[in-house]
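REQUEST FORM: STRUCTURE PREDICTION
Request ID: SP-0412
Submitted by: Lab K.M.
Chain count: 1
Length (residues): 602
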Amino acid sequence: MTYIGTDLSFWGDIVDRSQHLYDETAGIKYEHLGDVKKDDYRVIFSKILKALPNIIYVDFSEGTADLCELVIRISDEPLFRNIAVVGLIGEKKSERDSRFAHIGLTSIHVKCAEMNDCLFLPYSKVFPGLVKIPAYARARFQQDCDVGINMRIVYITKDHLHIENNVEWNEGDRIVLETKIPARILPSKRFTVIKRYISNLQFRYKYAYDIKPQFLDPPEFSEEQGDYDRKVKLSEYQADLEKAQREFKSWVFDKSDLYKGNQTKVLIIDSRQDAFDAGFKKLVDYPYTFYCQTHLSRELEEIPRHRPNLIAVHLDDEFIKGEEKESDKDSLKKNEPHKNSKKDDDVIINDVELVTEIIKKMKTLTSYEPAVVLFNSAKYSSKACQDNFKYNFVMSNSGKLNLDLIADFAEMYEKKKTNAFNKAVDAKIQLLKKKEPGKYRKLSMADFIETKYFLRHDNPCSNAVWMSKITVESMTESEVVFVSKVPLEDRVYCMDFPQKLFVSLVPVNKDGRMYEKRGERAMYRAITSYVDEVEKRKLRQFVNGVFFSDLNRRREQEDEQYRKRHEAAAAEKNITKSEQLGEGDQVTEGEFDIDKMEKGGE
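STATUS: Completed
RESULT:
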């Protein structure tokens, strides 16, 4: 368990509680890895790679921008797919919600006296077989409500939004989204899905969509309104709709110069993550999108998902040690695993096998020929690699991974791509002007370039929320159990019941399963997140109210059942006694005791 921040007092409280609850059986090690006031976040990331922690607490009290970048890099790294990253904040601020929505946090904890969930949540996620479930009152009921699923708006054009998420929609689906786009700019919350993508995504989501805004909701009519009134209202609506579309277009054009977005994507595979060396610029200071990983998944899902324009591989030192041998040449020529190749069921380590599999994967994708740069490759020239891997866009570099050199390659790629685009468009313009000079007289390059308003992750407008129906089955002050028809990923969600409540999914059982099938639906378990003391107190009051009302109701039912059994037993005893005495005999008071009979007495 590690901590990044300056509040050593709060970190001490976390350690004390963890030791008290778990140290006898868990043997947890605790380490303070520094803070961004003293340490560059890239140095901290290198420490995290060496420590390989199960739980990371990141304190956002200071250095929020750098820490957000650090968490993004942690979430990009496959080694950390199954760890818990808990963000710590001093107080809740609504403008921070969007900043933390997409950087990869497991949960957010408000630093206050309520500390139980600060440990309960990450332990539930990482150590489901070890976690100690608090003995809180549990309210059981059936309540339908909405859960908010966060989605990332990548950019906005004059007629559609481009978003990424993990929800499967179909083209033509009509959806409702909550966004931070000002209501005066986009009055309607309704959209239509016009295109779906499953590759060439910017972020770690499953799907991307182009969705068309409705701009302005149509008028509603009452049964009393006549045809004339309807026509007038529809005419007014059409005029207002056209005005809303013009204002939205103007807003997009005005905002488009704020941030142009990164057009070139670079995937770096390096077990040592030298791209984070403080000798280079920070990744965010380059005009390119970087995905930095120690390795790739066995399925190489990163290749089709992102379709990077440039792939840089830093070969392991073990691969290049010593002199080249005949066996090494044969291994390269036959595209077989090198003798130093390391692999398991989940990952492929950097070596010849990795490069072979990358190129094989690339060739399965249409219209996709990225450049591949092999660093730390002193034994093999670019020509040798091109011949043996049967791919013309492989380059070999004998030096260590160099981020500035990678950026130079990316710049060359962008210029080449831009020149090719400009040449093709210019030829198209000339052809159209030649065919119809009058019609295309004013046609220019700008007419072929779509204006886009790209959104950084710290822009509130980058976050959208789609509400999905769930049924809550039980709650404690820290835990929610519910069923959902829509499959949910391991992320943070927002509920609207019994109050605005953020929750993080955790395994449903000690075996680590994230859900339990219930026919067409699935049962999930979540722990409360981003809750301050006031909100926790309200939640506790709600749960206790339901729990004790249910308890009282059960006691009333038990009392009623006891009364009925009591009366039935008394009646049966009277009948039996009458039969024994015979007709005309009388039963005298005290001959049998009802209370004794209820207790099993004769």
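NOTES: The first strand starts at residue 2 and ends at 4.
Reviewed by: T.R.
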